[in-house]
Specification:
Blueprint: H1 4-19, H2 24-36, E1 62-74, E2 79-90, E3 97-101, E4 105-110, E5 119-121, E6 130-134, E7 142-148, E8 156-159, E9 171-174, E10 195-202, E11 208-211, E12 224-233, E13 240-243, E14 246-251, E15 254-258, H3 260-269, H4 273-284, E16 292-296, E17 305-306, E18 311-314, H5 327-334, E19 342-344, H6 351-369, H7 371-389, H8 414-431, H9 433-446, E20 450-452, H10 454-464, H11 472-475, H12 490-503, H13 518-527, H14 534-544, H15 552-564, H16 571-580, H17 584-594, H18 598-611, H19 617-627
Parallel strand pairs: 1-10, 15-16, 16-18, 19-20
Antiparallel strand pairs: 1-2, 2-7, 3-6, 4-7, 5-6, 8-9, 9-13, 10-12, 11-13, 14-15, 17-18
């Protein structure tokens, strides 16, 4: 769904209007302005560059309703080749179809009966790519585009056998969020447009293909796989993975895909998945995507998880061996409602995806593991938010972002996720949990399979809940407002006591750390000063084996201390950690910490030179900018 009048005038004006007490005559004038103003925009329509700053799509004229892919996967050339047939909804029969494309070679555009169509290609515009404009004769409601992707398409990561876990076969995976789908399929690459899709994908016969759709559970001898996604999705949820995969069922509607050596460990780690699905449904309504499966990708995957519908893409760095990092699965599952079911209409509204999802994740974790455990997660979330907020420009701490002229990846900060979470938690505490849960359940139901703006949500909130608090400072203001919820957790207060005891001289081996989870350890390490003495580092390492930890979250936090304290025994592990996984969440802070000194920056560049070819483009772009 598109909200024309509100997004036209921007968040600054809306913040002002919402904060004023306006008389009826003045309200009428404002409404009149909003109605008439669009007619004064000459040829501009609601899908103009202003309204969809990261796409040239004009869905108010012609929109894609279904996509049918027929692709060959060529590992030798690192290219996808084939065709996509686009079914169209033509709102204005006089207008062409506008698509996003980046680095794709178009070999022909035609109707389904083979009649060639005229296709005009716009100027390349960096990360936005090029606009494809296809002239549409009367009555034509489908177009066929034959194309080949480039060998360096940013959405595609081609891994050699040596770069995989089992080192036997090559691997391919896609990462389409935020605007990378256009690098492997010509499409209307905006979350404002939703479409169903089908696909036929041909791969080497020793490999299996899976997508964000209905999936096979066994490999076939022909290497040809067919897929169907009957629920409409935005382009950023279009996903493909190809590799030496096996499947293991973990519940009546859930399972795990992974390389053979990872499968058993992955299935054990995700044993609580069905409990999470049940908890989610009891909160906010039936699961609408048929199955919930997870694929564990090779370690170069740049994110913790990606909520591709029916098939979450996950990093192996959450396989801690103690199920302590499965909050990530709760998060990606929650996206099945917040994000996949109800989607942000533009990347300026990204918090509508992630803030809701962090809130929902917390509620799932509380339902499955208890309130004290969930509150530990909330406290760590708040600490991380406050730390990151200090590194951002003030305007980037608004929930409603302004990313025009910028890569939407710039908006993927703790603001959308964690300020969004605390805003929704504040609303829950204001109106009461029972009333809030009823509101959210109805919100997901009423907006299912639709894309909404921040202003759509504000209007729905005021009409159906009308909280007795000022929401404008949360959405259209910087930082955290004074009514940010407090997080109280006795568990982490005890951790702080242990940290203080250590700093005052208590031997590390005598600290009370029995039954600590990952989250206790993270808070302990974050409570300590960045830089410790070599002796202090040695005592901690000797007592708790932190350098050799197999838990990626703990390793990451410990490595920050290794760098700040110039702790020699940890430097080899640091280099291993930076070269053996590509999760941006871990890479960026470690390279940043190294870059704080000339000696550290030299080390960072040496390690990065070796590691860069193994990173996904999402991670490479971030570290390139950081070290240059």
């Amino acid at each position: 769904m598109y909200s024309f009048p509100v997004s036209l005038f921007g968040p600054g004006l809306i913040a002002t209007l919402l904060s004023l007490e306006i008389s009826l005559p003045n309200r009428f004038l404002i409404i009149l302005l909003f109605v008439i103003a669009p007619t004064m925009m000459s040829s501009q329509n609601f899908a103009s560059a202003t309204d969809l700053p990261h796409s040239c799509a004009r869905p108010g004229e012609v929109s894609v309703s279904h996509m049918d892919l027929n692709l060959d996967v060529d590992f030798a050339s690192k290219r996808l080749s084939g065709s996509v047939t686009l079914s169209l909804d033509r709102v204005d029969d006089s207008k062409p179809l506008h698509l996003d494309s980046r680095g794709i070679t178009i070999n022909g555009v035609s109707t389904v009966d083979g009649t060639k169509l005229v296709c005009e290609t716009g100027e390349a515009a960096g990360y936005l790519g090029q606009c494809l404009s296809i002239k549409l004769p009367a009555e034509v409601d489908k177009v066929v585009i034959n194309y080949v992707t480039s060998a360096d398409a940013s959405a595609l990561q081609w891994l050699s056998p040596e770069q995989t876990t089992d080192k036997q076969h090559p691997f391919l995976f896609t990462q389409s969020q935020a605007i990378l789908a256009r690098t492997w399929v010509p499409c209307q690459d905006t979350p404002a447009v939703r479409f169903t899709y089908s696909a036929r994908v041909t791969v080497p016969p020793e490999l299996m293909a899976v997508m964000s759709a209905s999936n096979p559970q066994v490999r076939n001898d022909q290497g040809v796989y067919e897929f169907e996604m009957t629920q409409p999705i935005p382009s950023y949820l279009l996903a493909l993975a190809v590799g030496d995969l096996e499947f293991r069922e973990i519940g009546p509607r859930s399972g795990v895909y992974a390389e053979p050596s990872v499968l058993e460990k992955a299935a054990w780690e995700l044993a609580d998945t069905e409990r999470m699905i049940a908890a989610a449904e009891s909160l906010y309504g039936v699961y609408r995507w048929d199955r919930y499966d997870v694929i564990f990708l090779p370690s170069s995957f740049p994110f913790g998880g990606m909520e591709n519908p029916r098939l979450t893409f996950a990093t192996p760095t959450i396989l801690a061996g103690d199920r302590s990092l499965v909050a990530l699965i709760a998060h990606e599952l929650a996206h099945s409602w917040s994000g996949n079911l109800v989607t942000n209409a533009t990347w300026n509204d990204f918090w509508l995806n992630e803030g809701f999802t962090v809130y929902f994740e917390q509620r799932i974790m509380e339902a499955v593991y208890g309130r004290p455990y969930a509150e530990m997660l909330a406290r760590l979330t708040l600490d991380g938010l406050l730390e990151e907020m200090g590194t951002l420009d003030e305007r980037d701490t608004w929930l409603k972002l302004d990313l025009a002229g910028r890569d939407p990846d710039d908006g993927m900060t703790a603001i959308a996720y964690d300020k969004g979470y605390f805003f929704l938690r504040m609303l829950e505490e204001n109106v009461g949990r029972e009333k809030w849960d009823m509101f959210l359940r109805d919100y997901f139901k009423q907006h299912a399979f639709r894309s909404v703006t921040t202003e759509d949500f504000v209007a729905y909130l005021k009409q159906n809940l009308d909280p007795s608090v000022d929401i404008t400072e949360w959405i259209y203001g910087p930082g955290l407002p004074e009514n940010c919820p407090e997080v109280k957790t006795a568990e982490l207060l005890e951790v702080e006591k242990q940290a203080q005891a250590f700093l005052k001289g208590s031997p590390a081996a005598e600290l009370t750390v029995q039954d600590w989870t990952t989250h206790h350890w993270l808070h302990f390490l974050r409570t300590l000063p960045d830089s410790l003495s070599t002796q202090q580092m040695h005592h901690l390492d000797e007592a708790f084996g932190l350098t050799e930890s197999a838990n990626s979250e703990i390793t990451h936090e410990w490595m920050l201390h290794v760098i700040a304290s110039d702790y020699g025994p940890g430097m080899e592990k640091l280099e291993q950690f930076l070269t053996q996984q590509g999760r941006r969440k871990f890479l960026k802070p470690l390279y940043q910490k190294l870059a704080e000194t000339d000696e550290g920056k030299a080390l960072a560049r040496r390690i990065y030179k070796k590691a860069r070819p193994t990173y996904h483009a999402v991670s490479r772009d971030t570290i390139d900018e950081l070290l240059n």
